[in-house]
Amino acid sequence: MPRLFAITVLGVLVLSANQPFAHAISVSPEEMKACREWVSAHLQSGPADVPFSFTFGGRPSSELLPTWHVERASTALDDSRTRHTITWTDSHTGLVVRLIAIEYHDFPTVEWTVYFKNTGTADTPILEAAHALDLDLQRGETAGEFLLHHSVGSPCTAEDYRPLETILEPNAHLHIAAAGGRPTNSDLCYFNLELRGGRGIVIALGWPGQWSSEWQRDHDRGLRVVAGQELLRTKLRPGEEIRTPLVVLQFWQGGDWLRAQNLWRRWFIAHNLRRPGGKLPPTQWCGTSEVGTNMMINATEENQKTYLDAYLVRGFKPDFWWMDAGWYPCAGDWTRTGTWEPDPARFPQGLRPVTDYLHAHGVRCNLWFEPERVRAGTWLATEHPDWVLPGDGDGLLDLGNPAAWRWLVDHIDHLLTESGIDIYRQDFNMDPLTHWRAHDTADRQGMTEMRHVTGLLAYWDELLRRHPDKLFDECASGGRRNDLESMRRGVPYTKSDYAADPVGVQGETYGISLWLPYFAATWGDSDDPYLCRSRLAHVIGACLDLRVKNHLSRLPQRLDEWRQVARCYWGDFWPLTPYSLDAHDWIAWQFDLPEAGEGVVQAFRRAECADESIHVRLRGLDPHATYRMKNVDLAEPEDMEGAALLRDGLTIPIPTKPGAAILTYRRR
């Protein structure tokens, strides 16, 4: 039989037919040992081995820390985690440097954040070049070159989330950074570095601001990796404390880098996703009245009820109702943000009558906010210009201002409670970096960003503390704020604003699934099989006007297909073809739940693709088991041996172009 094969091309994910296969991802003793040895070497030894660096008063931390007083403590948080705290104190200036690290015992993973506090009575000398991560790595003498797997972020192009590969040869230098102050506006802040020899390290950052990273090879076998807030050069005032971005390392050995990605996905689900009400975020589909680009500017209390009735009378009860931008006073322009009250002309009794109506029919409500962007003429701009950082175009609410922060927490908390909102959605449609840096002085560079980022995280944490059972939908012009700190609080219901082109959305699902195990997609106003199958995810949004008779007759079939496979998106993700956006190509992938013995294969034949079928080999199956395979477009299932699916694969035919196939399987 033919075998899946791809030629290696620099900069694009490729697959080889000779990759090893493994059943059910599990952590190996060798991986846990590698992590433990790293913790011992870098967190429990001398200060020269710490995994961060900075310059203070013109002197590097490698010179300073050995001369400062140091204290160490370790505390078991639970069966899976131990917290390590290391504190260094400079007796001359009162600067205290505190590293708080979490060591995981069920995954080969360690994370840390570094804090700097001035405990003295005068301003400190200048603190700068504060690298949250400063790591020196060596490859073996016989191993190949370092290979970095990284990804495009979500700048709203067809290539959103495109997987990339960069070979780091001797003397090579690679700079990867955020753009405009939103962390995944240009590139993702998630990396998988192959050290070769069947081992590597996943590196991730959490910082909803402007981060940067440098990957510097020496002339021999060494690689230095530094990362952190892109610009920080500041004195600290008495009592003042700041922090670095969050850093995560996950060690892997054996198998291939795709196995490592699934190890990451499993850790992400186990230790990062919020569990509102004690449960993982649900698979669900939503309804909305937002057909086209008008958003909610024409929404009223009565027409929201009418639109919902049109869903219900057709038998399509959505799990939640999406009320997006424009429900506030905005004079027909949804971007006019800064007055956070329901428009009294359209919602004279507020939003509660709408949510009560939704709840009476078993439907929850998702409400959109964009609290950071302030337009001229709105309540915030008029009543509290002192809370707004000016700039070209939109103003930025200063979350480093304590009064602005307190007002925002209390006001949004009141709105959520009074209006009966179930899901809080926060968007961010501007680049804040120029606002931050224009507000800095020469001896306080990076501090406006620092205060905004820490204020933003504190705002989310306080809001979620007051509403622990609410889901939080994180958005920033699509997926431009999907760093780890943000993803620990919210989930991306809009992974990209590039959502109309099915080929682009296929590429987004392929790329984001390597890193984020929960996301949403939208079908728009369509029941076309190719379009809808290209946009399957945990959460499906449908922008439908079901008041039109005989509209979307195939929607029940599309929803049934989604319900058959939605839970599989929690599984391990295996690309079955190379990544491609070419209209002449196929693309295919697999989501596998090995513990449950089930999964789904999705394949897409693009509009210009001449081949009527594709042959793929599956991953992650039990070679000793028999699986019942079912093509949802065919009547009869087929029993196939796991060993044959792993070794020889299967052929997927799609007679039409463009076309999409869904194959489900379950272990017998």
Annotation keywords:
seven-stranded parallel β-sheet; Immunoglobulin-like; 37 strands; about 20% helix; TIM Barrel; alpha+beta; about 675 residues; globular; ten-stranded antiparallel β-sheet
Notes on the protein architecture:
With 668 residues, the chain is of the alpha+beta class. Among the domains are: 293 residues, TIM Barrel, CATH 3.20.20; 96 residues, Immunoglobulin-like (Sandwich), CATH 2.60.40. The chain contains 14 helices and 37 strands. Strands 3, 4, 5, 6, 9, 10, 12, 13, 17 and 18 form a 10-stranded antiparallel β-sheet that branches. Strands 27-25-21-20-19-29-28 form a 7-stranded parallel β-sheet, covered by helices on one side. The protein has a 6-stranded antiparallel β-sheet with strand order 30-31-32-37-34-35. A hairpin with a 2-residue loop joins strand 3 and strand 4. Helix 4 runs parallel beside helix 5 and helix 7 packs parallel to helix 9. The protein is globular. The two termini are 25 Å apart. The N terminus is likely disordered.
